[in-house]
C-alpha cells in the first residue's frame, strides 16, 4: 500500500553533459529509461553508452532503474552494444564522489539487452552516469586553478560547429630553449562519452605543473602539446561519439571538411603546421576508452617502433595500464577503401609520417587494479603516463 502514496521519482538532464531518452514510470519506484544514443551523419553506427541523469524525490526504499534501447552498430557491424553485462554505472549524491554499482546492484538481461540497476538511495537526490563525467566546466575550473603557472601556455586553435573554443595547451619550461627538447602531442576526448580519459589528462597536467622535482626535470626536457577536449560540443550536450553534424572525430582524418568538421580541420592544421614550420614530433598519442579492452596501437615509421615498445613496457611495468594485447600496428584505415574512415593516428602518419599512437583503456573491471577503475586511478595514471613518456623518449638507445 505504501507505494500508492509515493510521488513519482523526477528525472532531469538539464545540466552540462546530461543525457537520457524516454523515461517510463512502471511504478513509483521502478523507472524504465531508454538510453538516447547517437548515430552518425548517415544515421549509421548508433552507439548508446552515455547517460547522465538526476533523480529527485527518491524514497528510502529500493528503487529499480532499467536501462534499455542499448543496441547499435560499430564500424557498420550491427547488433553491437557498448553497455554490456560487465557495465557497472556510477552514482553520486554530490557529483564529486562517484561510486560504482556493485555486482549485487546489477542484473543483465541478454535477451532484451537491458541493464537493471537496484539501489536503496541514501538521500533524496542522486545522479547516475555510465562513467564519472568530466565536463567543459571542470576543465575551465582546472585551468583557472593553474592560471599564472609559467610552464603552461593556452592557445585557441579554432572553433567547433557550435562556436566553442578548441584549446591547445603547451607545457614545458620556457626558460630552456626548445632545441634538444623532445616533443609529444596528446589528444583527449575525440569521443564525448570517454570522460575517464579527461581524468587522465587532468592527472597528467596536475603532475607536470607541480613542484615535484621529477616534473621539473621532465619540463626541462620535453614539450607537451595537449588538446584536452577534442569535441567540446559533444561533451556539453552529453553526446556519445559524433560532432554536432554527426561526424566521428576519430574517423574522417582523410576527409578534411572545415564546414562539417571544423574540429578536425583546426586540430590537423595545428599539428601539421607545427611540423611544417620545422617542429619535431617524437610521439603523438590519442586517448580513448572501451568496455573491456586495453591496448596501445600505432601507425609508426620503423625508427619509432623501439620508442613505442619502450613506452608499452614502461606503462605495463609502472602504471595501472592493463594491456589485453601486445603493442598493435594500426592498419591504413578502419575501413580500407572507404573514405572518411581514418583515425587521427592513421591520418597523421599518412600525411607527414608522424609516429602516432592510439591508447584504449577499459572502463569495466580492471584485473590489474583489482577493481573497477575509479577517478583517483585515472588521475594517478595521468601522472605515471607523463613519466613513462619521458622515460621512453629519453632512455639511452640499446
Ligand atoms: Zn574513442
Folded structure, characterized:
The protein is of the alpha+beta class and 398 residues long. It has two domains: 2-129, Sandwich (Immunoglobulin-like), CATH 2.60.40; 136-394, Aminopeptidase (3-Layer(aba) Sandwich). It is 25% helix and 25% strand. The strands form four sheets. It has an eight-stranded mixed β-sheet, sandwiched between helices. Strands 1-4-12-8-9 form a five-stranded antiparallel β-sheet, with no helix packed on it. It is globular and about 70 Å long. The termini are far apart. 44% of the residues are buried. The model has no long low-confidence stretch (mean pLDDT 96). Residues 190-191, 194, 250, 288 line the site of zinc ion (ZN).
Short description:
This protein folds into two domains: 2-129, Immunoglobulin-like, CATH 2.60.40; 136-394, Aminopeptidase, CATH 3.40.630.10. It contains eight helices and 20 strands. The chain has helices at residues 136-146, 195-208, 213-221, 232-237, 262-276, 305-318, 344-352, 375-394; strands spanning 10-12, 23-27, 30-34, 52-56, 63-68, 72-74, 77-80, 90-92, 99-100, 106-109, 114-119, 125-129, 152-159, 165-171, 182-187, 222-227, 283-290, 295-299, 328-329, 356-362.
Amino acid at each position: 500500500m505504501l507505494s500508492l502514496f509515493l510521488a513519482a521519482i523526477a528525472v532531469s538532464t538539464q545540466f552540462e553533459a546530461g543525457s537520457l531518452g524516454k523515461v517510463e514510470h512502471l511504478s513509483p519506484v521502478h523507472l524504465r529509461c531508454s538510453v538516447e544514443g547517437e548515430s552518425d551523419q548517415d544515421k549509421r553506427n548508433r552507439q548508446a553508452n552515455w547517460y547522465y541523469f538526476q533523480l529527485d524525490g527518491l524514497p528510502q526504499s529500493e528503487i529499480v532503474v532499467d536501462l534499455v534501447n542499448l543496441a547499435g552498430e560499430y564500424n557498420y557491424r550491427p547488433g553491437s552494444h557498448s553497455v554490456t553485462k560487465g557495465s557497472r554505472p556510477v552514482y553520486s549524491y554530490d557529483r564529486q564522489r562517484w561510486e560504482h554499482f556493485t555486482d549485487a546492484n546489477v542484473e543483465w538481461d541478454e535477451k532484451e539487452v537491458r541493464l537493471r540497476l537496484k539501489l536503496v538511495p541514501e538521500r533524496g537526490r542522486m545522479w547516475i552516469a555510465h562513467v564519472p563525467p568530466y565536463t567543459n566546466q571542470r576543465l575551465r575550473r582546472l585551468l583557472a586553478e593553474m592560471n599564472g603557472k609559467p610552464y603552461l601556455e593556452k592557445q585557441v586553435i579554432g572553433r567547433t560547429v557550435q562556436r566553442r573554443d578548441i584549446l591547445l595547451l603547451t607545457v614545458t619550461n620556457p626558460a630552456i630553449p626548445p632545441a634538444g627538447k623532445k616533443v609529444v602531442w596528446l589528444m583527449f576526448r575525440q569521443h564525448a562519452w570517454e570522460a575517464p580519459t579527461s581524468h587522465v589528462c587532468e592527472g597528467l597536467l596536475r603532475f607536470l605543473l607541480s613542484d615535484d622535482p621529477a616534473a621539473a626535470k621532465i619540463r626541462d626536457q620535453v614539450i607537451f602539446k595537449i588538446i584536452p577536449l577534442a569535441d567540446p560540443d559533444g561533451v556539453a550536450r552529453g553526446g556519445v561519439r559524433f560532432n554536432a553534424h554527426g561526424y566521428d572525430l576519430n574517423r574522417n582524418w582523410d576527409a578534411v571538411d572545415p564546414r562539417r568538421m571544423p574540429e578536425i580541420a583546426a586540430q590537423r592544421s595545428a599539428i601539421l603546421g607545427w611540423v611544417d614550420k620545422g617542429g619535431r614530433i617524437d610521439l603523438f598519442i590519442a586517448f580513448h576508452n572501451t568496455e573491456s579492452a586495453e591496448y596501445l596501437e600505432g601507425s609508426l615509421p620503423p625508427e619509432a617502433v623501439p620508442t613505442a615498445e619502450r613506452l608499452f613496457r614502461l606503462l605495463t611495468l609502472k602504471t595501472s595500464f592493463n594491456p589485453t594485447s601486445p603493442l598493435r600496428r594500426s592498419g591504413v584505415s578502419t575501413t580500407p577503401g572507404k573514405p572518411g574512415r581514418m583515425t587521427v593516428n592513421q591520418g597523421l602518419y599518412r600525411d607527414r609520417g608522424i609516429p602516432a599512437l592510439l591508447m584504449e583503456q577499459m572502463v569495466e573491471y580492471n584485473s590489474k587494479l583489482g577493481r573497477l577503475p575509479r577517478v583517483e586511478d585515472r588521475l594517478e595514471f595521468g601522472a605515471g603516463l607523463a613519466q613513462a613518456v619521458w622515460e621512453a623518449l629519453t632512455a639511452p638507445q640499446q
